[in-house]
From TrEMBL:
HTH araC/xylS-type domain segment(s): 263-371
Keywords (A to Z) from UniProt: DNA-binding, Membrane, Transcription, Transcription regulation, Transmembrane, Transmembrane helix
Xref: PANTHER family: ARAC-FAMILY TRANSCRIPTIONAL REGULATOR
SMART domains: HTH_ARAC (SM00342)
Stated name of the protein: Helix-turn-helix domain-containing protein
InterPro entries: Homeodomain-like_sf (IPR009057), HTH_AraC (IPR018060), HTH_AraC-typ_CS (IPR018062), Tscrpt_reg_AraC-type_HTH (IPR020449)
Amino acid sequence: MTETYFNINDVILILSIGLSIVLAISQPLYTTKNHLSKYLLAVFFLCIAIFDIGILLIWNEYIPKSEAILTATPYLYTVAALLKGPSLMLYVSSITDDNFRLQRYHWLHLIPAAIIAAVIVYFGIDLNLLRLDTFGLDNPTYRAIDYSLWFIKVVPFAYFAYALWVVWRYQKVVFTQNSSVNLEPIIWLYLLTGAYIASALWSLTLSFLAVMYRLPYGVTDNYINFILLIGIFFYSVALSPKLTAAKTEEKQDQPLNPSEKIASLVAKIMRGIKEEKLYLQPNINVEQFSEKIGLPYRDVSFAINRAFGTNFFEFINSYRVEEAKRYLSDENHLDMSVMEILLESGFNSKSSFQRFFKRLTGESPTEFRKKSLS
């Protein structure tokens, strides 16, 4: 009688499978700004679980396998591998864009999975062949297996790289539309997408090493993926709800109204700055600002970018710094703390205030105050 045997790598896989399934099932219970995001993340976790089950079945020879498992495993393993990338990319898109909705063209992301399934059917690839048990195989079948294994590594890498680009695009948009931005979740999102790119690149490197030098480092993938699984869960629960709201800029069908020249737009913007002091409102965004001065927000963004060479975030905070400098250099406000001054100036974050103030003046607020009053 053969006993089932699990080594430490199998244990990590089993833990990853169990955690992925639990996380996938629990996603609908969480509250998110975009309800679609939690279902996309659930799909991502399910893909990880199915992919890891495939690895376990392929490489653990002690697990009994029926004919159905031998036939089905290549489909489940490869399709799950190819759906990890699109599901993560779409999840990142959904949490960084308030307008995100699934469109018909998104179904095109299923094409790589359909291609690999067709290859498996055509060449009759089963679980044993995926294990590279290729003795006596004809050359076309061997090449089909080899190319398929490379395919399921390259495609996720491309999607993870695209997800990183989505984060970069979001950062640009959110700084254009908002005067106050929570940087912590953005930094974490950069780290996670960057880590998945590094993981996919490492997986490709291991494949090269295995082909060239027969180095058995492939199991390290399991440990890295388990750590990333925990990381993406922590981010989805703790940090993604803190992302600053952003709407992807839509293409304008019509150019700016010819009667609204740049000078006229700037005049209205400066009226909102000088007379209404809208920059003192801590969380004001470009839509709220535009509504108060009676202009379309796209015109405001365009004018600020064209006339001042900056975005809304930088533009508003520069006036907040000037307001803070007025308080800090006035002897009548000596009783005010730096925290009170930054709040009075429209900032709602000490770190953001310190960063902007130092960048624009070359000094910390405390240094500026001491120098101004000496």
